[in-house]
Fold these 2 entries.
Entry 1:
Amino acid sequence: MKRTTLCLAVALSCVAASAFASDSAEAARSGAERSFRDRDPRGIPAPEFPKESGAVSAPRAAGPVKAAFIGDQGNGAAARATLQLIKAEGAEVVFHQGDFDYKDNPEAWDGLINEVLGPSFPYFASVGNHDMKAWPGYQQKLAARLKRISGAVCDGDLGTISTCRYRGLVFLLMGVDLMKNNDYPGYIRKQMAGETSPWKICSWHIPHYLMQVGNKKNVIDWGVYEECRNAGAIIATGHEHSYSRTRLMKEFATQQVASSDNPLRLEKGRTFAFVSGLGGDSIRNQFLDGAWWASVYTAKQKANYGALFCTFGAPTANAASCYFKNIDGRIPDRFDLLSQP
Ligand SMILES: [Fe+2]
């Protein structure tokens, strides 16, 4: 890591104000849609969802805590509806994988969150390419919110190369492929070394193009995927405006599936990745497919806006239940996790 200074939160001077990464893939949408087999979102049998209170008897390192994962939010009615869904589902923390309001308006973006979820709601974010221009302002809002979140601790440069802990969850908020000077694989390896929490999350905005199903062209360093996999950390991304989730993977660079079973058994060397990019801005079509996908939910599957929800730490500390729900109440994906840290 070249920028080694621990410039927590308010040290905005740490922000790389450079490199307004262009979203070239978005400009390349004119290409003809490739023909892939039609399929409905994968219908994994719905598990019995554990009760979220009173069900845990064993000592636990995490939760239960219910998290919502979103990205690519926008600032219109769909963004508001998605936040309202998050509130209605009883999520206790939001992880935003970047691309906030697309308006470079930190005040309005933060204001909408405050209006729907409240000013002290635990809301953590990774920088997106559309957040770079006004990033100091967004980071300042996130840092101010962090101070109001009881029990949350972060170090590093918040949202670009940072590690946070909250209610037993350990999450790395990063700007992979945006902050070009950072050694993200090295950072992940260092931060995850010796980590014993069953619930580790790597959060960044831009997926490798083979780890999304749209027409993004980003060829990012597989090292970030493999280091998170080595740690057994969940990989949360956005950028493509659809939802897709891999099976349990044993290598991302070669798209090798470890297992298609449910629950997914996370351990060192085994994890999954997802794109949750239906936060409100737009809904895009499916252009790619592959045997490593467990669930695909795009315009082709008539997707609507929504969020991925995971309840970590129930009914036991190393168990979790997840589902993607849209603002119409439809649930196109459900799965369970067991983590062996
Ligand atoms: Fe993006």
Entry 2:
Amino acid sequence: MSSATQTLQIDEVPQVVLQLYQQQTFEPAEALAMQYLSVRPKDAEMHFCLGKIFWAQKKWPQSAQALNDAISIAPTKHEWLHDLGLMYFEGGAKDAARQTLETYAKRQQSSWRMPSEFIDDYFAGIRCTDTPVYPSRRLQRFHLLWEVAQKTFQHFAALKQPIHMAECGCFMGLSAFLLASVRRRVLGQYQGQAFHIFDSFEGLSAPTDEDLAITENAEQKRAIGMSKAGMFKAAQAQVEAALAEFPQIQYHAGWIPQSFEGLPEQSYGFVNVDVDLYAPTKASFEYFYPRLAVGGVIITDDYNWPGAKQAVDEFIGSLAPNSFRLETTEHHQAIIYKMAEC
Ligand SMILES: C[S@@+](CC[C@H](N)C(=O)[O-])C[C@H]1O[C@@H](n2cnc3c(N)ncnc32)[C@H](O)[C@@H]1O
């Protein structure tokens, strides 16, 4: 290759482009990537990388061109559509963003339809919380969370019944952002009132034996690999900044269940439990379910984590039959609808 990179072998170029990109030296990265593509124009990965380099420089049309080139050369890389959608969104091309994510969804599962309101909330959440777009498979989970929350908020709004909502485990704030956003859509105006976030802001607590049970299930093995004290740590200030559109959210920093002590008695309509481990999952269900209004929902997406699944199963086992409805999804969510006081 020419000039400063004269001594590089062509096969070494992708690695160097990536390093330059990671070091945020975008102009040399862009020049080298273009040079490489003049020799190997069908290299989809390099087109994709060039798209990210343009994106980082807010060169939106060039980024769109390069990402679309990558996708047309490698059409089976569906997850790249997810990046393309986010790039369009950040570049202000909302219609293109929605269409791209809809195409992504259809390719994942032909019957999957996402409302454009969800797509807008999702991309806005990714941007505010600075959450990486991967793994893109979590999109379906978030979509379902958003829809269940929407129906629940509509139900209580129709009854004019005031309710609180809570999230146990917020990490960088993406699910909280989605919940607050969909509540705002239902209520018209909303700044985070009666929304309670419980988190250590120190990451996971220490796993117990229930979390580390030996299993042959590949997903559970993966979960066990992530069951380490301190995983998923995000600082409270970072989350508050990400959720700045909702300044009335109440943050309850500390370890569950101690952080439930001394809370005023309140009626909850929607509770999202996402703390991954046995002990805090069980404690969250035990605290919130009795305080859940009839018609309310408690949901977790940890139903593939061994300890969290055990906690939910034990908790459900303690409920009166016919007082609730349980729905589980292929995305490892367990949704409990409270139908009667038990
Ligand atoms: C998987 S992350 C939550 C992800 C978030 N709900 C989302 O979807 O964007 C798990 C969170 O649970 C919190 N956590 C885990 N164990 C906890 C405990 N015992 N007390 C308080 N927070 C805990 C961690 O700090 C982390 O923020």
